[in-house]
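Hi team,

Filling in the usual template for the complex we talked about on Friday. All components are listed, including any nucleic acid strands or ligand strings, so the model treats them as one assembly.

SUBMITTER: L.P.
PURPOSE: interface mapping
COMPONENTS: two
RESIDUES: 564
SEQUENCES:
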Amino acid sequence: MTGPLPWRALAAISVVAVSISLALPYLLTPYYLGLVVKMIIFALFAMSFDLLIGYTGMASLGHAAYFGIAAYATGLLALRLEWNVWLALPAGVLIAAITAALFGLLALRARGSYFLMITLALSQVLWGVAFGWRSLTGGEDGLPDVPRPDLGLPWSLADDTPFYYFVVFIVGVGTLLLIRIVSSPFGHALRGIRESETRMLALGYNVWRYKFVAFVLAGTFAGLAGCLYVYLNRYVSPGYVHVVMSAEVLLMVVLGGAGTLFGPAIGAVLFVWLENMISSYTERWLMLLGLVYVLVGMFAPNGLTGLVRDLLNRRTGS
Amino acid sequence: MSTLVVEAVSRNFGGVQALSDVSLAVEPGERRLIIGPNGAGKTTLFNMLSGAFAVSGGRIILLDRDITHLPPYERAKMGLARTFQITNLFPHLTVLENVLLALQAMDDTAFSLLRSMRANDHLFRAAGALLDSWGLTAIADQAAKDISYGEKRQVDVILGMAMQPKVLLLDEPTAGLSAAEVVRVVGMIRSLPRDVTILMIEHDMDVAFELADRITVLHQGRLIAEGDRDAIRNNPQVNEIYLGAE
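RESULT (copied from the run log):
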C-alpha cells in the first residue's frame, strides 16, 4: 500500500491539476475535449468500482448495471418528462442506489466466484430488459437525442466548454467524497474485510453491513458517472448495462492498480485513450484489450501504479 | 455465576461427529486449558464458542446470556475475543493498522464514513501504547505479512487483547514457535489481567500445566476428563490415550 504523500506535494499536484483542467477547453479541439470528458466520467466509474474490488475485495462482473440504469433513468426522465438536470440527475443516481441495494441483498449472500456470477446474472437481467422492452427503452436502438442539461444559467451546457466544466465539477466533488470515504474508519474497516473477513467478525464487525454499504455506495457513484455519460453522448443504449461494459471497468481498475483510487482513474484515462487510438486503425479492439489484460497480469499484477511504485522503490533501494 | 457455560454441545460435519455432548463451565478469571490429541475437536469447540460455526445441538451461555444463535460479531461485542490457530492477521496492513482495526471495532466512530482516520487520535495513542507495552513498537509500521512468525503470533494475541475482552479464547498461541519465542508468548499470557477469563488450546504439555487453573481433556470429540493439574496428571485414562502416547 502506498503511504500518504506529503501535503506539499499534494498541494502542488492539485494546483497543477486544477490549472490544467481549467485551461483544457482552450487547448483542445472539441473532438478531443469530448474525449477528455469521457475519460473523466470513466475515471469516476472506475473509482466507484475500486471501492468494491480494490478496497473491500469483492469482485463483481455487473458494475455496469448501476452505471447503465442511472443513464437510462436520467435519459428517459429528460427525454419523456422533460425533467431538468436538477431533478433528472439526482433521480438517476437514486435509482442506481436503490438498484444496488436490491441487487446487494441478493448478491451479498454469496462470496468469491459465486458473488461474481450473481452480479453478472443480475446485470444481464437489466440488459435483457433494456434490449427487450422496446416501448420504454427503444430496444437495440436505444434512446437518441437526450437533451444536454440546462442549468437555467445564462450560458448553455449544450456547448462543449461549459459542459466540460460541469463534468469536472461533479466528478471533482465525487472524487473528494470517495477519497474521504476510503480514508475514514469505515474505509479502514473495508480494507480489513478485504484482508480477512473471519478476523473482522471475531473483532466484532458486522461484516455484512459494511459490505452492503460499500456495495450501495459503489453503485451510487457508478450511477453518477452513468448520468453524466448520457448527457455527454446524448444517447443511451443497452451497451451501457452490458457485461462488456462491466468487464471494461474491471480492466480499467486492474490496469491502473486496484485499491488506490488514483490508479483506477489513470487506468480509465489510458483505457479510453487506447480504445480511441486503436479503434481508429482496426476493428479488433476487444482482441487487443485481451492482450493488454494478459500483459498487465503477467508484468504488472499491481497495475501501472504498482509498477511505478516498485520501480521507484528499486531506484531508491528501499 | 460461571462466565462461560457450555451445555451438551455437539457438532457433526456430514456424517463425522466432531464433537459430542461436551459440557463445561468456566469461572470468572479462570485459566482453562483445553488439551487433547489432533482431531479431538478443540478448534471445533472454539469455532462454536466464537460463532464461526453453528452448533448441531446444545447451548452456549456467556455472562448469563444464551449466545448459541448469536452471530460472531455480537459475541465479540459482549466481550468474547479469540485468536486463531492459523495466524489470521490483515497481511497487507501495517501492524499498527492491524491494532487500530481491533480498537476501532468497539469505538463509536467505527461506522463513520466521512470522518478522517487521522481524527481518531485516541485510537492511535491507544494502539501505540499497546504495541509499546509488548515491546513491538519497532515493527509498528511494517506490513503484517513481513514480520517474523513469532511476531505474528504475538500480534494475533494483541488483537484479541485490544478488544478489552472479558473472555479470551487462545487457539494454540505457541504453535510452531521456537523455545525462546514460547517463553516470550507464555510470559505475555501470564501477564494478562486476572479478571480476563482465558480458555486456551495447547499442544505443549509443559506450557499447559504451567498456565492452567483447570484442564479439560478432549478425545475424539468427547470430554474425557476435567480437573486441576494434579487430577489430570494422575488420571489413568488421560495417561493412556494422551500423555502415554508421547
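MY TAKE: The interface with chain B takes residues 1, 177, 180-181, 183-189, 191-192, 195-196, 198-207, 209-210, 213 of chain A (CB under 8 Å). Chain A has a mean pLDDT of 88.

Thanks, L.
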